[in-house]
Each structure stands twice: as structure tokens, then as C-alpha cells.
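Q: I'm building a small set of examples for a reading group on sequence design. Run inverse folding on the following structure and report the sequence directly after it, with nothing in between.
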């Protein structure tokens, strides 16, 4: 599994449009066999900062699977208006260090 993190700075006046765009684009993510889940978090201390977290089955699944799929142009059209607001867009792999309240090691 690969986790894509996209950090955005979204001005308050664009917040609802940004969230709406990702709500709509969620249809393409949910429909992708390569996407295992996604979420958006908003910073409490700095409310204009957002992190989009997308779980992919693999780098290849994201870059060659989803990005080359028929769903990608629609997804991209929905979120493209906010691409100039991206601060970071990277893929990460989990390490063996993790815990959760459930105590299952993740």
C-alpha cells in the first residue's frame, strides 16, 4: 500500500468550493480498483491548511492504473482549479512503527 499526501493552502473564501470539488471527485476515487480509501483533514491551528490522504494499492496502481483510466479526466477536471494551491504532493510507504486505539498494531 502507498499513501499519497497532498497538502493544500486554501483561502477561506474557497473552502466550500474546494470541499465540494473533492466530494464530487470522490466518485472517481471510490470507483477505482486501485484506490483503497481517501480523506481530507483541515488543520485546527491554521484553518487554511488541508491534507488530502489517498490510499493506493501501489504506486503503479495510482500512476499507471488510475491516472490512465477513463475516470481520471473527470477526477482531474474537478480538482484542477485548486492545483495552484498545492504545497506538497508525495507518496509514502508505511514503516513498521504504528499503533491505534484498537491496539491492533496499526
Amino acid at each position: 500500500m502507498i499513501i499519497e499526501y497532498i497538502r493544500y493552502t486554501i483561502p477561506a473564501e474557497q473552502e466550500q468550493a474546494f470541499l465540494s470539488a473533492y466530494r464530487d471527485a470522490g466518485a472517481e476515487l471510490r470507483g477505482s480498483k486501485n484506490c483503497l480509501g481517501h480523506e481530507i483533514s483541515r488543520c485546527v491551528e491554521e484553518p487554511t491548511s488541508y491534507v488530502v490522504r489517498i490510499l493506493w494499492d501501489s504506486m503503479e496502481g495510482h500512476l499507471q492504473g488510475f491516472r490512465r483510466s477513463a475516470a481520471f479526466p473527470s477526477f482531474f477536471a474537478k480538482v484542477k482549479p485548486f492545483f495552484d494551491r498545492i504545497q506538497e504532493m508525495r507518496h509514502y510507504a508505511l514503516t513498521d512503527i504504528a499503533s491505534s486505539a484498537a491496539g491492533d498494531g496499526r
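The beta strands are 2-9, 35-42, 49-56, 86-92.
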